[in-house]
Amino acid sequence: MYKIRKPKLSEVVQLKALIDSASVKGFVLPRTLEELYENVRDFYVYADESGLGGCVSLHIDMEDLAEIRTLIVRNDIRRKGIGRMLLHAVLDEARELSIPKVYVLTRCPDFFGKQGFQKTSLEQLPYKIRKDCARCPKYGETCDEVPMILSLNNDNNGKVL
Fold first, then answer.
1. Residues with Cβ < 8 Å from 54, sequence gap 6 or more?
2. pLDDT grade for 157, boundaries at 50, 70 and 90
3. CATH number of the domain bearing residue 132
4. Can you tell me the distance from the alpha carbon of 97 to that of 11, in angstroms, rounded to the nearest whole number?
5. Which of 13, 35, 103, 108 is 20 to 30 A (C-alpha) from 121?
6. 161 within some domain
7. Which of 50, 53, 51, 43 is nearest to 73 (CA)?
């Protein structure tokens, strides 16, 4: 039996291992254990009989904008809709908090495009550029992430969210 839920504090070490395995492949940024404990409430996890199989976080930047971070699904359970379920968990939370827009920096734009996200530019995310991107060694010409944004105030061209 699987479940999408908030992580338990006792699972933070397992959450870090999941993130580390994706980080070494360049899929997500690494996170320290301290950072994960500080931000554990931002996360949702997918849990099954094998433990944590996926995660995602919703990081609030401002009153009207939040970032989707660290969307990961374990290799053995990919392509089963788990990433979509995790994404919908954070989108539902953003709606509950009345956050009108969410964005993501991704190397998987096709996945997010299918969920209604539209490509944008980093210049449209000035808070993110000042806070995080400017400190990244890949900022500028070597950045390989695609910024995408989703408005939660409309029907997103008929996409099921």
1. 18, 45, 46, 71, 72, 73, 74, 77, 82, 83, 86
2. very low
3. 3.40.630.30
4. 25
5. 35
6. no
7. 53
